[in-house]
Design goal:
By secondary structure, the protein is mostly helical. 64% of the residues lie in helices and 0% in strands. The radius of gyration is 21 Å and the shape is flat. The model has no long low-confidence stretch (mean pLDDT 94).
């Protein structure tokens, strides 16, 4: 079965796509699978990881919303995967590699979204970036410290999925674009649902380029990337639509993200700072995998532990440690 996949890739994928048989491999050699390519194995390892399961209870933008239809970090990840695979399909790139990168790109994200990321970046002496932490999750923290031992291409795409990244494959570039397309558009929907934004308040020039409806905007973006990148050794959006997407992103930061973050900024900062201080002084109270890291690097271990927490788990630990309880 695997050889059939190799044959299909050689016959149908773009010359610029990363073929499964061309992978640079894993840091630790291991027996291959008779059925699945290495990128397919990586995708499966990510889906069945504990870090992936925790994404369902991590904030995307709106913390613990009462409505059932707000995005979580997991639904955002699935959205990115869908858009990235659509790009890979129309550009004849490797869908398995693209999907694996997309599913793993936010595994290291903190509780409480980017608020949590900013707090840990300020507290940790060596800084904190969720893209680097996502790579650390798959390299070091999963499987009780053994890591997932993913291929170079998937690891590279995870590390370089942000706008400032420079992925080594076109599949990684597709995920990076898909991430921006996804979060801008579904965050617009969530902001409208939360009453922070009205559709008619979106920048008129960007609406004229992309459209007012979410489906139309995403379809326009994918179509534009296809026409700009088909048959080329790059994956990018046209200059006109890049400017319009950046305008939407800037608008969302000014009118939505900062407003949404204000609702949880102070409480999340106090909570995570208290947890950081507590476990820095008492690393032995962390789970074994983090305590083992703390023996050589306490701040890194505490950041590993806190960033792994879901919103709900972080609140529960905080309450257990700092909120008085009635005597039994």
């Amino acid at each position: 079965m695997k050889e059939k996949t190799y044959e299909k890739e050689r016959a149908f994928l773009s010359p610029y796509a990363k073929k499964s048989c061309e992978s640079r491999g894993r840091e630790r050699e291991e027996p291959s699978c008779a059925m699945r390519t290495e990128f397919q194995r990586d995708r499966d390892r990510i889906i069945y990881s504990k870090a992936f399961l925790r994404l369902k209870n991590k904030t995307q933008v709106f913390f613990a919303p009462y409505g059932d239809h707000y995005m979580s970090r997991l639904t955002h990840t699935l959205d990115v995967s869908q858009i990235a695979r659509s790009l890979a399909r129309c550009l004849s790139l490797n869908e398995d590699l693209t999907e694996a990168i997309a599913l793993g790109h936010d595994l290291g994200h903190t509780p409480f979204g980017h608020v949590g990321e900013r707090v840990l970046a300020a507290l940790c002496p060596t800084g904190f970036r969720h893209s680097a932490q996502s790579l650390r999750v798959v390299d070091v923290l999963e499987k009780d410290g053994r890591g997932l031992n993913l291929t170079f291409e998937v690891r590279d795409g995870i590390l370089n999925h942000t706008k400032s990244g420079n992925p080594a494959t076109l599949e990684g570039a597709a995920v990076s674009l898909a991430d921006r397309i996804a979060y801008i558009n579904h965050d617009i929907e969530d902001a409208i649902r939360a009453g922070l934004l009205r559709a008619d308040e979106l920048p008129p020039a960007a609406v004229e380029v992309f459209g007012l409806d979410t489906s139309e905007r995403i379809n326009t973006a994918i179509t534009d990337i296809y026409h700009t990148s088909a048959g080329q050794a790059f994956v990018r959006m046209s200059p006109e639509r890049t400017i319009a997407l950046d305008a939407l992103r800037s608008f969302m930061f000014e009118h939505v993200y900062e407003q949404a973050n204000k609702l949880i900024q102070d409480s999340a900062e106090r909570m995570l700072t208290a947890l950081y201080d507590y476990f820095t002084k008492r690393p032995e109270e962390m789970p074994e995998v983090y305590f083992a890291i703390a023996k050589t690097d306490v701040p890194r271990a505490v950041c590993d532990y806190i960033s792994s927490m879901t919103d709900r788990y972080a609140i529960g630990v905080f309450q257990r440690l700092f909120v008085p309880r009635e005597a039994v």
